[in-house]
Amino acid sequence: MRFNAALLLPLAATATPLARSTGPDPSQITISQTSFSGNGCPQGTVSTSYSADKTLVTFGFDSFQTYIGPGTTVADRSKNCQLHLTLNYPGGFQYSLVDSTYHGYAQMDTGVTGTFYSTYYFSQDAAATTTTKAVLTGGGLWAAGQVYTKQVCDY
Q1: Which of 8, 19, 83, 145 is the most core-located residue (most Cβ within 10 A)?
Q2: Which pTM was predicted?
């Protein structure tokens, strides 16, 4: 695959639920179902892997790629993907996202900046969001292409 100035955004993102320190057994919180939507994750391009206890899910994105430069379209410059998790949990629990880890590949010339935003919310309260931002500035190591890992926590 050839990249002019390309930013291949996360190849894998993980999400882990967190239980309160008191209450029911935390092992009772599990991820029962996942789905996704958006132009960065068309059907058939996302792999999903669950931990044995179903408390961790890893997604792999084959089509979450952005491009700029000659011959590209406006649609090539930005991608999005919404991940939907259905959790099973007993009453009396509160839960939160513990951390997310993003792995990807970026190749960017000097003067090119890639920005990756992640917004987290619960469907019951979509107005209450948390957004994280990662910025990669082209040139140097990024000119030849480089793998990156970004870990985001403390939601």
Answers
A1: 8
A2: 0.72
CA dihedral sign, ordered 18, 20, 26, 32: negative
Q: Which residues pair with 50 in a beta bridge?
A: 57
Name, in order, each residue with C-beta under 8 angstroms of 95's C-beta and a sequence gap of 6 or more. 17, 18, 19, 29, 87, 89
**Among residues 74, 154, 85, 80, which one has the least CA distance to residue 117?**
80
SS3 helix, strand, coil % of the chain, rounded to 5? 10, 50, 40
Tokens linked to 149 = 């890992």
**CA–CA gap between residue 68 and residue 77 (Å, rounded):** 6
Residue at token pair 């790629």: 65
Say how many CA atoms lie within 13 Å of 137 toward its Cβ: 2
C-alpha count within 13 angstroms, C-beta hemisphere, residue 131: 6
Q: Which residue has the tokens 């991608």?
A: 79
Q: How far apart are CA 96 and CA 149, in angstroms?
A: 22
pLDDT mean values, one per 10 residues, the chain (155 residues): 35 47 72 93 94 91 91 94 89 73 89 89 84 88 88 63
